[in-house]
Specification:
This protein is of the alpha/beta class and 284 residues long. It has 2 domains: 178 residues, NAD(P)-binding Rossmann-like Domain (Rossmann fold); 86 residues, N-(1-d-carboxylethyl)-l-norvaline Dehydrogenase, domain 2. The protein has 11 helices and 8 strands. Strand 4, helix 4 and strand 5 form a beta-alpha-beta unit. The protein binds acetoacetyl-coenzyme A (CAA). The site of acetoacetyl-coenzyme A has 18 residues, from helix 2, helix 7 and helix 9.
């Protein structure tokens, strides 16, 4: 496999900009692609801000921050991916949206380019089917905030080659992150464990077992989680949580993963958490 020098990231939302940030800091040239100019402008300001936090903490120097920023190209044209050895898609968590992008990437990229997806729960084997390179399609699941969280879940689809896995594992290690190897299964490991816990917290709130603050306090103080499950749901986005519960329910064909009606109600009302200013808590 050729040496990695250039990485494209598709989707300049929270995850895409975090991924672009860590690759640029790792010394790679990054091509961050989004069809929306507005999203790219927001990504630039959030990456600047997050690099600034690291400078303030003295984990990186101001020069490293400037050099990292200079390594990122902000692009609206997806055709710009053709000189990347690795392309990571980090678009909205809907199977049809990801399939469309992967199909397009497959037609634009040289045969040797690895196509990774940052999906948090959708089957890698199924996503790979829309391409003509299923041996080079792999899950690379980062966690928010990407510059802070150490873990990357690497998910092998049915046809992902050993060579592709070892390539991605070494890339993750070179970024200073810790990889875990996971076989393709709904929600992988992270969301198979995390989302039912969040969903159960929402049931407890709906059934008035306790207040949102106290439910969160139990997991923070009793289990030493950095955030309670309801605050974490707001941080992740309630629409994302709902999507993942639906993937688990459908993928395992088991109603133990039924999304809580209160979660469905909040998403239908547009109360998606921090990004809309209200979720289980009010951020306005
Ligand atoms: N970029 C760079 N640095 C950042 C940052 C960012 N985006 N956000 C926070 N930081 C740094 C801060 O500078 C700070 O550093 P020091 O402690 O060394 O000063 C540190 O991270 C902690 O930040 P804060 O002090 O601002 O806030 P905090 O102590 O309350 O921590 C948190 C914030 C890191 C988000 C912490 O609450 C946490 O770990 N929460 C859990 C997050 C989590 O579970 N993420 C996974 C979500 S699931 C997911 O992403 C995938 C999925 O599939 C759904």
């Amino acid at each position: 496999m050729s040496e990695l020098t250039n990485v494209s990231v598709i989707g300049a939302g929270t995850m895409g900009s975090g991924i672009a940030h860590v690759f640029a800091l790792g010394g790679y040239d990054v091509n961050l692609v989004d069809s929306s100019k507005d999203s790219l402008e927001k990504a630039l300001s959030s990456i600047k801000n997050n690099l600034g936090k690291q400078v303030k903490k003295e984990t990186i120097t101001a020069e490293e921050s400037d050099n990292s920023l200079a390594r990122i190209r902000f692009e609206t044209n997806i055709g710009s991916v053709d000189n990347s050895q690795l392309v990571i898609e980090a678009v909205y968590e809907k199977k049809e949206v990801k399939e469309k992008i992967l199909k397009e990437l497959d037609s634009l990229c040289p045969r040797e380019t690895v196509l990774a997806t940052n999906t948090s729960s959708i089957s890698i084997s199924e996503l790979a089917l829309v391409t003509n390179r299923s041996d080079k399609v792999i899950g690379m699941h980062f966690f928010n905030p990407v510059p802070v969280m150490q873990l990357v879940e690497i998910i092998k689809g049915r046809s992902t080659s050993g060579e592709t896995f070892l390539f991605i594992k070494s890339v993750v290690e070179r970024l200073g992150k810790i990889p875990v190897e996971v076989n393709d299964s709904p929600g992988f490991i992270s969301n198979r464990l995390l989302m039912p816990m969040i969903n159960e917290a929402v049931f407890a709130l709906m059934e008035n077992v306790s207040s949102a603050e106290d439910i969160d306090q139990v997991m923070k103080l009793g289990m030493k989680h950095p955030m309670g499950p309801l605050a974490l749901a707001d941080f992740i986005g309630l629409d994302v949580c709902l999507n993942i519960m639906e993937v688990l329910q459908e993928g395992f064909n088991n109603d133990k993963y039924s999304p809580c009606p209160l979660l469905q109600k909040k998403v239908a009302a547009g109360e998606l958490g921090r990004k809309t200013g209200v979720g289980f808590y009010d951020y306005s």
